[in-house]
């Protein structure tokens, strides 16, 4: 069996041990005589899975007790609307930092529901940095302040969180959740599509401080009200049962095989360093992001010559390194090296890049 090194930005690589475990349990989940996919979500077996997944997530991420964990659907993109529907109902104002396409989409969608302000943007340099924030620009009575923590397409990350005082900080964590410890108490709400670091597509995780619940506007669809899901243990309707099961296996892998998020971060730092060090020393390839804002998860790079980029992506694919093409809006290359990418995968990629460089002097 030949598995490729998959650098996809999402859906993305999963730990091989998780896939093997799921394969082993596919036809007969722990003596139940059925696959998790076929199970009633109201069954005792499934209850153990979803409750186990939540307990593990709380433990691994050290989620404080005054936060609810919700397992939803609709992707991170649905949260661009769900957040304002639920939170933008006090002053009706919210602040946004525009650090890329996802941040912009969150801003545009929320603007349909209230008075939204872009307090800073890095659009002037193709989102290759995190803009400096000036507290004087913040809206003091905003209902929330939104950031996209890790910018999947452009490869930047907030290494430092904005100090928003009493204004709840809301963050899209889709491409950095579970990559390192994060202090949830600094946020009012975080959300993430699962298909980058948590499991398969179809599951969206929301972690929300309890005092922010119950403020949804009257016209909010029942399914878009956080309270609906908080009050029903994410079982108001059928949850994405199989995706939650895989997420639980991924969390078990982080806890038992890796040793938790602090260890995960060490591994991720080491992996990213290997690629960044190469990019900084290469004469052919270069990173596109300013050093101080570089992401550990998504690393875009270019040769500066589109034809050369294409040639590299094609050669890499042939050698079993797939999905290295950059996002269609920026071109070049992008290596997404999420939790499940083994260090060896990054080392081999650098070997390949170095060979390619020698051949294309
Ligand atoms: C992938 C991604 C999204 C979109 O997620 P969907 O689940 O496809 O809606 C939003 N934000 C960020 C940061 C992402 O990486």
UniProtKB/TrEMBL annotation:
It is found in: Cytoplasm. Binds 1 pyridoxal phosphate per subunit. Pyridoxal 5'-phosphate binds at residues 76-77, 102, 152, 172, 195, 237-238. One of its GO terms (molecular function) is pyridoxal phosphate binding. One of its GO terms (cellular component) is cytoplasm. Keywords: Amino-acid biosynthesis, Aminotransferase, Cytoplasm, Pyridoxal phosphate, Serine biosynthesis, Transferase. InterPro entries: Aminotrans_V_dom, Aminotrans_V_PyrdxlP_BS, Pser_aminoTfrase, PyrdxlP-dep_Trfase, PyrdxlP-dep_Trfase_major, PyrdxlP-dep_Trfase_small. L-glutamate binds at residue 42. Its EC number is 2.6.1.52. Its cofactor is pyridoxal 5'-phosphate. The modification N6-(pyridoxal phosphate)lysine is found at residue 196. Pathway: Amino-acid biosynthesis; L-serine biosynthesis; L-serine from 3-phospho-D-glycerate: step 2/3. Transmembrane segments: none annotated. Residues 4-349 form the Aminotransferase class V domain. It holds the Pfam family Aminotran_5. GO terms for biological process: L-serine biosynthetic process. It comes from the Bacteria. Homodimer. NCBIfam families: PRK05355.1 (NF003764), serC_1 (TIGR01364). Catalyzes the reversible conversion of 3-phosphohydroxypyruvate to phosphoserine and of 3-hydroxy-2-oxo-4-phosphonooxybutanoate to phosphohydroxythreonine. Belongs to the class-V pyridoxal-phosphate-dependent aminotransferase family. SerC subfamily. HAMAP family: SerC_aminotrans_5. This is Phosphoserine aminotransferase. It comes from Youxingia wuxianensis.
